[in-house]
Each structure stands twice: as structure tokens, then as C-alpha cells.
Amino acid sequence: MDPILISLGIFFMAILFIGGVYFFIWEMPERNKRRQIRDRLESISEAGRRAPSPELDLIKKELLSDVPVINKILLQFSHSNRLKKLINQADIKLQVSTFILISLILFALSAIVSQQLTNIIPVSLLVAGFLSSIPLLIVLYKRKRRFDKFEELFPEALDLLTRAVKAGHAFNTGIEMIAEEMVDPISKEFRTTYDEQNFGLPLKQALFNLVDRIPLLDLRFFVTAVLMQKETGGNLAEILTNLSDVIRERFKIMGEVRTFSAQGRLTGYILTAVPVAMGLILSMMNWQYMSALFNEKVGHYMLAVAGFCQILGYIIIRKIVKIKV
Fold first, then answer.
1. Which of 248, 280, 303 is the last residue of a domain?
2. HEC states along the chain?
3. Are residues 205 and 243 in the same domain?
4. For residue 51, is it within any domain?
5. pLDDT for 242-276, tens place per residue?
6. Which of 75, 101, 132 is the last residue of a domain?
7. Does 163 map to a domain?
8. Mean pLDDT across the stretch 16-25?
9. How many whole angstroms separate alpha carbon 88 and alpha carbon 310?
């Protein structure tokens, strides 16, 4: 049989298997919970028994796909919204359907090419799984960089807001000044918060939306402090000044911790790279000695176990040296 047909068959079987596991493990319980909640709300709410009135919907809704059928299918999966949230947090202009299509294309192409080169199905699936995860890794990497940039600029934004409050400006005006004078991603997120308030959204909900878009601990402190001051009173400028000082001190301690843990991180990189480097060197020096790992079935399992242990060991070392401040 043609190896290309075998590869395509493996690809579609893997997609069906992953989709089935996902549906029965994650989606079915979520659907049951949503159905129970909806039934309870309809049983106690008069609005649930009335036909919905044709009112104008002013809430901005982002499509998961430009194709209505695909968009409707994706809306049935709760993880589609989570993926959309990750893409938005990374500030990437990409729809969920396009993201999934890119991942599937990478999976199919890498599975076919690796199958043609190695003719080893487990290796082909591993290579395809890794390459198809590259779009997600890029999204997570850009999301982390954006969050780090936001966290770095946040104390300056607090200082600007403090000066605006001390000068007698309203809190909303201070938010607008941050949106106009700061750079991205601070300016973009605070601009969104300011626009939401202008369109009539309560301050509390607008700040909650800001934390939902940028789930950082420092921002949670800021929102909590502002909302408590709005309800109980107090000197907002002093509160913001103290919060800015605390954030700067935390950054200082974080830098010291990274300095002390640098040797542990380097050790993790070396221990991860040495087996791979030794394998490449031995393969170039004596391929006949190393070929048993690639030609024998037992060698395939040994490579899989070794790769899994390497990844697990690297993750454990990262957990040890990554100290939260």
C-alpha cells in the first residue's frame, strides 16, 4: 500500500481519536453542567419562559470563524473561547478557525514527510504532534512577552495615575491619560477600559474585564485597591503610591532571585542538552552502533522513554529553580 495513503489514514484516525476523547472527557460534562444551569434558571425566571424581545444587541461579539457553519460548530466547544482568549491576550490578529487549520496542516504535512523519511509510525506521530503544537507555543510565548512588558510598565502607569489624581483630575481622566501617554500594551488595555466606561459599562465591570484580559497579580491588587477605595473611601493617591512602591520592590527581589538561581537554570539546560549532543556525536562517529535505536522496535521504545524522561526532568528542574515572588 502507498505510504502516503497510510500516513493520511493515520492522520485522520488520530484526529477522530483526539476529537472523541476531547468530546467525551471535557465537552460532555461541560454540556451537562450548562444544561442543568439553564434548566434551573428557566424554572425560576419569568424571563426564561417569555419569548426574547427583538432588541438591538450593542455588545461586541467576535466570531471564531467567518464561515457561519464552522463558527456555529466551534461555539459548541467551550475550549474554543479559551483559545480565542489566549490569542487575544497575545495580541495576534487571528481567528480560532485559522489557528486550528494551521495546526492541522502542520500535523498532516509533518506526519507524511516524517513517515516517508523514517517509515516509523510512532516517530512520525511524535514529530507531527510536536510540529503541530508550534502555533500554540508561539501564542503562549507572545502572550508571556506581552504580559512581561505590561508588568514592567505598570508602575509608571500607576505613577501617572497618581499625579493625575493629585492634580484634581477624576479617576476616569487618569485612565484616559494612561491610554494616551503610555505605550502598548498598557495604552491599548487602558484605552479599552476607558472606552467601555464611556459606553456605559460600570467602573467595577470595566476593571474586572481588564483583569480578565491581563490576569496579573499586580493588576489584581490595583483593581482591588481602587474598588475598595470607591466603597470605603480614603486617599486614592496614597494607595496608588504605596502599590507602585510594592511592585517596584517585588521586581527588585525578583531580580535577586533570578541571579541566585542562574546556576540551577544553566544546570537544567546542560543536563537536557548533553544526552542529545552525545547521541548526535555517537551517530556521526559510529552510525552502525547507534542504528539499532532507529531500526529495531525495542530501540523505538527506548528513544520514546528517553525523550519523555528528558522532558520530565527539564520540567522538574524548571519548577525547582522558578521561585514565585
1. 248
2. CCHHHHHHHHHHHHHHHHHHHHHHHHHHHHHHHHHHHHHHHHHHCCCCCCCCCCCCCCCCCCCCCCCHHHHHHHHCCHHHHHHHHHHHHCCCCCCHHHHHHHHHHHHHHHHHHHHHHHCCHHHHHHHHHHHHCHHHHHHHHHHHHHHHHHHHHHHHHHHHHHHHHHCCCCHHHHHHHHHHHCCCCHHHHHHHHHHHHHCCCCHHHHHHHHHHHCCCHHHHHHHHHHHHHHHHCCCHHHHHHHHHHHHHHHHHHHHHHHHHCHHHHHHHHHHHHHHHHHHHHHHHHCHHHHHHHHHCHHHHHHHHHHHHHHHHHHHHHHHHHCCCC
3. yes
4. no
5. 888 888 888 888 788 878 778 878 888 888 888 88
6. 132
7. yes
8. 57
9. 32
One domain, residues 75 and 162? no
Length of the chain, please?
325
Is 119 part of any domain? yes
The residue written with cell numbers 460532555 in the block is 28
Output the pLDDT for position 61. 55
Q: Which amino acid is at 223?
A: V
The range of the structural domain enclosing residue 120 comes to 3-37+61-132
pLDDT of 53 strictly over 50: no
d(CA 104, CA 99): 9
Q: Are residues 176 and 220 in the same domain?
A: yes
Separation CA 100–CA 106 (nearest Å): 10
- For the question of whether the overall pTM of this predicted structure is more than 0.70, the answer is no
Q: What is the pLDDT of residues 296-308, one digit of tens each?
A: 778 877 877 888 8
| Amino acid in the structure at residue 65 | S
54: confidence class by pLDDT, cuts 50, 70, 90: very low
Q: Are residues 96 and 152 in the same domain?
A: no
Whether 127 and 161 share a structural domain: no
